Amino acid sequence: MVIAALANQPSAGAPARSAAISASNRANVASAAAPADAGFTDPRVYRVSPTLAVVRVPPASIAQYSTVESLRSPSKSPAAGHAIGAEGRLGVVVGRYGGRHSRSPGMDGVCMRNGGGVLGLLAPATSWGLFWGGWAALLPTLQDELGLDDGKLGLALFAVPVAAVPAMLLTGPLARRLGPRTLPLVTLGFALGTLAVAVAGSRWTFAAALLLIGATSGAIEVALNATTAAREALTGERLFHRVQAATPLAMVLAAPAVGLALHAGVSARAILVTIAVLVALSAAAAIDRRRWQEEAAEPGSARAERANGRLLIALSVVGAVGGTVLLMENTVEQWGAIHLTDNLHTGPFLASCGPAVYMAGLSAGRLLAQWRGERVGDAPLILGGGALGGLGLALAAAAWSTPTTLAGFALAGVGLAPVLPTLLAATGRAVAPSLRPQAISLVTTVSYAGFLGAPPLVGTLAGRLGLGTVLGVVALCGVVVMVGARSLRLLPAEAGPGTCDPDGASDDPGGSGGSGGSGGSGGSGEGDRAEGVRSDPPHHPRPSRRKGVAR
């Protein structure tokens, strides 16, 4: 990979400094990347071609970006270009340059100057978790205010999964069409659904509001995953673990907070209105004016159709592994407190700690995977996650004591935490940008089937075998997850990083984005070599930890 560090000079209309770019090609690269802009103050990364990235830094602040300064003088760190090219990263090149853990000030915002940075992912994930974390505490109060018996409440709640499944399937094509606008749009819909629940005054309006909640909640799950995958492709950063750690952490904090608010006399409607406002604010934070760069679909040849058939099977298998994880997860969430109450005779507080420590374990495990997951690799994360998850549930099922049972639930949370984010991230990297939203939608929807199936399946078996025995059986699903680590081999070779398109302009993957001009379609495939761009010296790319796939 050829990396260019360009310092913008508005008066001259062209960059004055360049690394890894020959003098004859500087103007070509500058015009391909973007026109000179006297007003920009943040670093920007542009994808010029599959082998060329351009980093533009304001002249006034270039000194603080030591990594860019090093790129201007590559002789100071001659090995850095090899490391960048071997990793195949784009967008975090400045942060990665100069050491594995080095990150220059302000470079987390690269490629995000038009909004929708990491905060744009964390905000919807957090607000989504706030709603569902407080939902269980709000339900008894809402039931009393609406005068619903258990049967009517159960039918109303059934509207959530009924609406969620088709919405998840439809959000993939919607995300392909709307790109980054999808997440703020569906998050705003979720805010309206929360507000509708707050003002519902009858059984029917309550059920209608829950239909909207279910549809938008399912859409958020797909849109959030698709947007995270697109951001990973654009920036090269690992984001899934960080983003998905926000939701369980928010749920753990929201449940007691809502309980305390209700105990203090705050009405359920006031709490829901507050949550709706927070969700709406998170939708605003998710606005991103850039669009995702998509590759044109290949003609529908027989070979392409066979490849799509194999991809569909691979994605379904990956989704089934994710569904196994969610089956284990929802078993703890729905039956953990009952297990502590029935088999260990704990009080309400300790019983509620079972799902709580599991969710806390999920957050901790995902943050740990964010910190060290890249060193471990995808397959080992899934193998270890399945092993720890199964061991933790087996320990909880043994019900030797309350502390050991709680420790088992926490261990299961830590173990299973990185599995689903790892599967989604691998899916996003493996497919072409034009197929990414649908692929993420399929994996998410198939996984959701395990989440939906857990309560009735465990309940039916528990009535015959006992809840402790059923938890032991569910613990064996950890073995299925471990075997499922091999499902990553079914995915195609990773598709390479996507295009960072800060100004919304379309870039041809092989050149500057036009049929003519520098690096046009006629010669874009070899434009870098033909136009005199000096590529990195030969190196041996670091093989992926997934067998047979070059990173």
Instruction: Give the C-level CATH assignment of the largest domain.
Output: Mainly Alpha
Shape: globular
Query: Largest sheet, order of strands side by side?
Result: 1-3-2
Helix coverage percent: 55-70%
Class by SSE composition = mainly alpha
Rg on CA atoms, Å: 25 Å
Number of strands: 3
**Uncertain segments:** 1-38, 46-53, 60-115, 294-305, 496-551
The termini sit apart by 12 Å
In this structure, how is the largest beta sheet organized?
3 strands, mixed
Number of helices: 20
Could you tell me the CATH topology label of the largest domain: Growth Hormone, Chain: A
Which CATH architecture of the largest domain would you pick? Answer: Up-down Bundle
Beta-strand fraction estimate: under 5%
CATH superfamily of the largest domain: MFS general substrate transporter like domains
List the secondary-structure elements in sequence, H or E.
EHEEHHHHHHHHHHHHHHHHHHH
Number of domains: 3
| Mean pLDDT level | 71
